[in-house]
Design brief:
mainly alpha; two-stranded antiparallel ribbon; 4 strands
Length: about 210
């Protein structure tokens, strides 16, 4: 079900959050309503508590005995029609989307309607916090470019692709081949070497005798 409160008055309630601004909660508690609101989406759907809120500001115009605290469609319709008429007489804006969304239990509608009445009746603004901004991570784009070099067209490892990393400002070649002809200092290692001959070469390179096994 689409959120009927979305985009109205700069308010966008998280789905199923059901919690208004803290100042609005304190305001509702100060009105001393006949029942506590424990679930805004459910408790405001029939309009009975909304009528009580309006009665606190317009006691002569809002006759509470004409409202019913029921859950039937007929009760909801009658209550909201009276509320709509009262708001019209007092030049109090009542957005149809919020009213219908609250009556139908739409996500976020009751909270948005309550905050709307708070702003209109108290002449105060609801503090709306901006969404948190996640800090950018340095080197992310470079990491993505490096990762792209590792993969081929199908997303797997690229064949014969050179892999270079950086340590400070010096490039490090990591795609060394381990076949014949790789020269480690003064010792050239062939693909297959006799162990005894390899020890002799190492001893000659380091100028230190190595005992034969």
């Amino acid at each position: 079900m689409p959120n009927p409160a979305e985009g109205l008055f700069g308010y966008k309630a998280p789905p199923c959050s059901g919690i208004p601004n803290r100042e609005v909660i304190r305001w509702v508690q100060s009105l001393d309503l006949s029942a506590s609101i424990t679930n805004f989406r459910r408790d405001l759907a029939n309009g009975f508590l909304i009528a009580q809120i309006l009665h606190k500001y317009y006691p002569a115009e809002v006759q509470l005995h004409s409202f019913s605290n029921g859950t039937s469609t007929a009760t909801k319709t009658d209550n909201w029609q009276q509320i709509q008429k009262i708001c019209s007489q007092q030049s109090l804006p009542l957005p149809a989307q919020l009213m219908q969304g609250t009556a139908k239990g739409g996500p976020g509608a009751a909270v948005s309607l309550l905050e709307h009445f708070y702003e209109k009746l108290t002449k105060k603004s609801v503090q709306k916090l901006p969404p948190p901004q996640l800090p950018a991570v340095e080197g992310t784009s470079q990491q993505h470019r490096t990762a792209a070099a590792f993969t081929g067209p199908s997303g797997g490892e690229a064949e014969d692709a050179p892999i270079n990393a950086t340590a400070g400002s010096k490039p490090i070649l990591t795609n060394l081949q381990t076949g014949p002809g790789v020269d480690f200092g003064a010792v050239k290692i062939d693909a297959v070497e006799d162990p005894a001959r390899l020890r002799q070469k190492l001893a000659a390179a380091t100028q230190r005798p190595i005992a034969a096994s």
